[in-house]
Amino acid sequence: MAIVTRKFDAVIVGAGGAGMRAALQLSEAGLKVAILSKVFPTRSHTVAAQGGIAAALGNVTEDNWHWHMYDTVKGSDYLGDQDAIEFMCRQASEVVYELEHFGMPFDRLDNGKIYQRPFGGQSQNFGGAQATRSCAAADRTGHAMLHTLYQRNVQANTQFFIEWMGLDLIRDEDGDVCGVTALDIETGEVMAMQARATLFATGGAARIFSASTNAFINTGDGLGMAARAGIPLEDMEFWQFHPTGVYGVGVLISEAVRGEGGYLLNKDGERFMERYAPHAKDLASRDVVSRALTMEMQAGRGCGRDADHLLLKLDHLGADVIKARLPGIREIAIKFANADPIRDPIPVVPTAHYMMGGIPTNFYGQVVAPYKTGPEEVVQGFYAAGECACVSVHGGNRLGTNSLLDILVFGRAAANQIIEDLKKNQHHKQLPPDATDKALARLARLEGQKDGENVAQVSDAMRKTMQTHCGVFRFPDMLKQGVAKMSDIAERARQTAIRDKSRVFNTARVEALELDNLIEVAMATMVSAEARTESRGAHARDDFPDRDDNKWLKHTLYFNEGRRLDYKPVRLKPLTVESFAPKPRTY
Amino acid sequence: MKFSIYRFDPDTDATPYMQDYDIELEPADRMLLDALVRIKTVDDSLSLRRSCREGVCGSDGMNINGRNGLACITPLTGLKEPVELRPLPGLPVIRDLIVDMTQFFKQYHSIKPYLINNDPPPETERLQSPAERAELDGLYECILCACCSTACPSFWWNPDKFVGPAGLLQAYRFLADSRDQATAERLDYLEDPYRLFRCHTIMNCADVCPKGLNPTNAIESIKDMMVKRTV
């Protein structure tokens, strides 16, 4: 097959919040940018973010970025890199104001300023009273933001490649990145997209679990491509289970419900979070609340016939507040739980939601890996931002509304770094002769495979294994079996067959290619989790219930070759302020 | 449960046809999209778009028993069998339930769907009162699923000239924004026999919108603004 090659200054894979914030910056700088997305940009999963964007604007309660930084470090269970966290929290107000200037329809306070609401883990004065830090557009903040960014890109004439899927990273013999191979889903055509800068903004991958708040498209494509190209994946054992996914369905119910005053109840009608987090109660960090829900169910205090869910009560907020501030939640509860929250509580369970780990980067968005000479060297030509990246600002546990902030700050930072780097690198590196081999081999395998297992069957086995063996609480024998089971499933994934051989909009092919990426993510998760013998943030081991800073205050690096693990130190030194030393974490 | 689904693959089929499926549902299958995902496990060639499965991304608009809607928030109970599924009407079909939305997005882009304000931005946010912000409710929530425009006879006849309900709803979203300064320019563009005035208040748009929005009202509001500026 003759493969078309096209040259761009920069190629961005993924058109969610991070990708589109970066594209805007690059287009406005006059660069030739291609931004690829498996779906029309406003269908990216940023659209489903509900509660808000964290920024210490201080519109409601006194606030400053340093308090926000403290909360983020503590929320991360001290695994977050403090240089990156300072960088993010310092820029928060600026990127939010910028978004407002772009046209974002934020809710407003009576004085005309941006409306802010309280969220979990937010405090004033380094652990004092609850802060009110999340800037919101009702409970559709992600939707409003994604559409605003798309609209701004329309104005900037950004070149989109819509319904194109990244297949594999192109690295040359120096290990530098020179672009990606990509599939035009509509026509089946494969293209080599050569670029002086390649930015991954491919989002999350919580579709490795059965119960997930994530969209079907969240299959970790960027991580799969990076891992296959020899780039390590960082901190993959850390997955956030959101305390309130709709029972049996997984659809997200925003923490904004608790921010506005809703709370959780067990079958006795007890507000049980008071026992687990006497100070912050229902607004403790998500890892803490999800574990509390799980323990309530294990103690037989869950609701329903099988004691397998809990209730989120908000009717006391009144119809007016619910209609004005939580209209999307009400819609979801009515449609998916048959419960109108104006009268009825919503049945909820902890649900896989967010990947704290990802492709290792510094706070300029440059991918860093053990490479030519050092353990954290910049991989030339390669950048990552948003959920697919591990900067690491979220460490072991992300605070609610820090993810929309992350994608704005690091989408923009990566673009700014690309603009600088391209001034130095004026010419494209030559594509290696084997540039498209990896991608074409995967496609040829699918094309030729006659008998083989159904893709849906194998992905179902993967999701069940991850759910059972690597959930909210993790057990040593289950993890060990999990690694063996995942190895077996990875083998099966290499033998799948699709019956659809059409060139045109072949979604069976897309799903098979996605499975390759999911498997990389799931394998990295299980192996990394089995090795970390402590409990920190969202990684809770039954056999090692405590955090162990002596042994484990370090980041995991997983390499797909030989499923090897390595580690690197946490960056405890911020940019300008004093370090927050690890201390016991209570809410 | 029985389904009859529009099939067409330009790679292999000379003409479209309807294919019947009879599938066993699981208790967890509540929505139409759940059933389609289940069909796809037995026939992987059935092609459709889907993503968020909660009615916010706008991917899975289709014609369900004669009416446009999103598969992911259409409950299976209450659907008459066999459930007849066709692609959104009026747009070229790429394959099966997947339509070519180029024309739809072209119309959306034509109304300059972005805030125009030429003043240098302040250091903090531009102020907007809660009442001014409330003007955007019922407008900004659009998910661009195209259920409305592809239910509109005026859009079927003139998809290249009539902006259509989705585009006009967004035109009004910016006209209604107290921060936007391009009111005259926006109204000038729409003051045209086709772009706006092909709307004959048939109201199919408001009837089918899966988000409960009302493009007809927005169109009436634009017409009001035009009348007001002439007097």
Which labels suit this protein?
A: 587 residues; alpha/beta; eight-stranded mixed beta sheet; four-stranded antiparallel beta sheet; 35% helix; B: 231 residues; alpha+beta; Ubiquitin-like (UB roll); two-stranded antiparallel sheet; 31% helix
Number of helical stretches of at least 4 residues of chain B: 8
Based on CA atoms alone, the radius of gyration of chain B comes out at 20 Å
Low-confidence stretches of chain A: none
The main pleated sheet of chain A reads as: 8 strands, mixed
Mean pLDDT figure of chain A = 97
Strand count, sense and closure of the main sheet of chain B? Answer: 5 strands, mixed
| Count, helices of chain A | 16
Q: What's the gyration radius of chain A in Å? A: 23 Å
Instruction: Catalogue the unreliable spans of chain B.
Output: none
N/C terminus separation of chain B: 59 Å
Shape of chain A: globular
Query: What is the string of helix and strand elements of chain B?
Result: EEHEEEEEHHHHHHH
What is the CA–CA distance across the termini of chain A? 59 Å
How would you describe the oligomerization state of the chains in this entry? heterodimer
**CATH structural fold name of the largest domain in chain B:** Fumarate Reductase Iron-sulfur Protein, Chain B, domain 2
Strand-residue proportion of chain B: 5-15%
- Please estimate the helix content of chain A: 25-40%
What does this structure look like?
The complex is a heterodimer of chains A (587) and B (231). By secondary structure, chain A is an alpha/beta fold. Helix content of chain A is 35%, strand content 19%. Chain A has helices at residues 17-28, 65-75, 82-102, 141-155, 221-228, 256-259, 273-276, 286-298, 319-325, 327-337, 402-424, 437-448, 455-469, 476-493, 507-531, 549-552; strands at 4-13, 33-37, 53-54, 116-117, 134-135, 159-162, 164-171, 177-184, 190-200, 233-234, 239-246, 263-265, 310-313, 346-355, 359-360, 366-369, 377-384, 389-390, 473-474, 540-541, 554-559, 564-569. In chain A, strands 1, 2, 6, 7, 8, 9, 16 and 17 form an eight-stranded mixed sheet that branches. In chain A, strands 11-14-13-12 form a four-stranded antiparallel sheet. Chain A has a three-stranded antiparallel sheet with strand order 3-5-4. In chain A, strand 8 and strand 9 form a beta hairpin. In chain A, helix 2 crosses helix 3 (82-102), helix 13 runs parallel beside helix 15 and helix 14 packs antiparallel against helix 15. Chain A starts with a strand and ends in an 18-residue tail after the last strand. In chain A, 63% of the residues are buried. The mean pLDDT of chain A is 97. The N and C termini of chain B lie far apart (59 Å). In chain B, a hairpin with a 2-residue loop joins strand 3 (61-64) and strand 4. Chain B has helices at 32-42, 102-110, 130-134, 153-157, 164-175, 183-190, 204-208, 215-230, and strands at residues 2-7, 17-22, 61-64, 67-70, 83-86, 93-95, 98-99. Chain B has 231 residues and is α+β, with helices and mostly antiparallel strands. The mean pLDDT of chain B is 97. Classes of the chains: A alpha/beta (587), B alpha+beta (231).
